[in-house]
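The pair is listed for reference:
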Amino acid sequence: MSVPVSSGLTYDDLWAFPQDDGLRRELIDGELYVSPSPVRRHQQAVLRIAAALLAHVDEHGGEVQPAPADVYFSERTVVEPDVVYVGAARVELLTDERYIDIAPDLLVEVSSPSTRRLDLVKKRALYERERVADYWFVDLDADVVDVYRLRDDGHYGAPITLGRGEALTCLAAPGLELDVDRALGD
């Protein structure tokens, strides 16, 4: 399980840690969360989703980054989602090569036993607070994808749960349809 191991840290503090030890380090409001490397099925789902988004970007513009890619919300809040997507209409707002420095249009987290609570509680609340339009939680155990979509009032509604045989869409990626079967794999 990913639990905070330190508090009061900043983005610069992250660079004091080893960068090649296979651990994922994220800051949420100054608290450091450390997670182990994901399993193969997790990584395959990340690659399939990123590849589908990349095909869309190649045709329509925008930017997609699979982990590891930092999303910098503030000096004390820097996360590393599994997949980051910024639509063509906003990609010119990116100003820093080190990290994504705007609220992305879509963030994807693929379930892992060590990060499930972090993804569904802390990160979901963070993404809502930072006004990330779409958040997909890919639940490999339940074989579904929960889609959280920002409403006009600035909050996520109840998740739209999609299963096999259904298609994922993203408001900032017109024309994108990703089969849930493809995202989940075998």
